[in-house]
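Workshop exercise sheet. Pairs work together: one partner reads the sequence aloud, the other fills in the structure field after running the prediction. Swap roles for the next sheet.
Pair: D.N. / O.F.
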Amino acid sequence: MTLSEFYLQAKKLYTKEKGERFFSFSLLWACICEKHGLLPSARFSDATANEGMLGELELLLTGYPLQYYLGYWDYMGKSYLCRENVLIPREDTEILSRYCAKVLPDNGTLLDFCCGSGCVGISVMALKPNAKCLSFDISPDALSLTKANALRLKVDKSLTADHCDIFSEKASELISKGEFDVFCANPPYIPSGVIDSLEENVKKEPRLALDGGTDGLDFYRRIKELYLIRPDKLYAFEIGYDQEEAIRELFCDTDASIDILRDLSQNPRVCTLTPTKMFRKLNN
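Structure field:
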């Protein structure tokens, strides 16, 4: 089969499988070309197609994530390694990274819980070379990938990754010591009953990184407990697009100044908790 014939068959199969639920055909073709070192114009070529390309196409059209297929994805202008069993970096999360980089002192310490690929903490360290980040996750795969990405992006001297369950006593002790300036997290926040209805590509990501409990708020209740241990610190965490009201209600009985940052689509995306005195100082 020539590359030209493969392109036509790929387009026909794409149309049949309605792959637009996951990605556009032009993006799919660009990723296949990049994976195999081809130019997009290969669709006109009479060169022989790789025998494995059709199998790869069929896999992608089941919803297999392009990020896992390529093995990397861009975040904050840098290329991050992506692997199965670890949450994929998303553009919406850049709101969290940019906020943390803005409020973290130049030589401050960031606590990054539920770190996944490490994209939040690593991107902040790239902008704050004299700061340090302590990244935590419950998943060995996530911790391994965070370390690999830190080394790849040359922040491994300022970032360490360690196992810690956010619900554990270890997490409480870390917060209690107060040896940090900013707490951040991109926790699981999808209600358990909703996960099976998600698009196929999202369901290929680890449930451990998606499932936020019956109402999607389990991790935010825990973050509130941690906040109450050290309410003198800055806290920032990603939330679901439909969770602003629930989050405000959850934290309304604290002394924090609550702010909700919106993503490029103007959906609620990040909640910040700032001590009232610090909020006044930051805004004067």
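Discussion prompt: Residues 249 and 266 are 20 Å apart (CA to CA). What would you look at next?
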